Structure formats: C-alpha cells, structure tokens
Amino acid sequence: MNNDIIELRLTAIEAAIKTISAAICANEGPLSDDLHNQIQLLRDQISSPENTVKQEAITYQTIKLLDSLNCDPWDPF
To answer: pLDDT for 19-37, tens place per residue?
Structure first.
C-alpha cells in the first residue's frame, strides 16, 4: 500500500469535509467534530501496522466511497 498517495487523498477528502462542515456549522447544524474525528480514524487505520487484511479492505473501500472520482485510492492524482 502506498501511504503517501493515500495520505494525499485523505488530505483532499479532509479539505472537502472541512468545507462541508463549515457550511453545516454556518447554518447552525450539528458540530463538525465527528467529521474530523472520522478522517483522523482513517489516518490512524492506514498507519496501523496491526491491520488485518479485512481492516485494510474496509479502509480501502471507505476511501474509495469518499473519493469516488478515482477508481483506485492508491493511484496518483
């Protein structure tokens, strides 16, 4: 797994979520802490050396859903 490429994707996803969460907060919606916590959770899961194949596959699919414009989250931008 190429963690540098996936880190770039997570940074892009995080930027998009920050924009969305700012809009939610500006409209007096729920706080965006949960959104930021989920991005941190994905970062932690990627860097964990204890990941099982199943956990890695779940993380991979989650990122694929969040970044649906690209077929493979580990491909360069």
So the answer is: 776 666 666 656 556 666 7
**Which amino acid is present at 48?**
S
Alpha-carbon distance of 35 to 18, in angstroms, equals 8
The answer to whether the beta carbons of residues 74 and 2 sit under 8 Å apart is: yes
Task: For residue 39, give both structure tokens.
Answer: 């991005």
Residue 3: closest CA among 60, 50, 55: 60
CA dihedral 41, 42, 45, 46 (to 10 degrees): -150
Look up residue 25 and give its two tokens. 């907060």
Enter the tokens of residue 74.
């580990």
Domain positions in the chain are 3-66
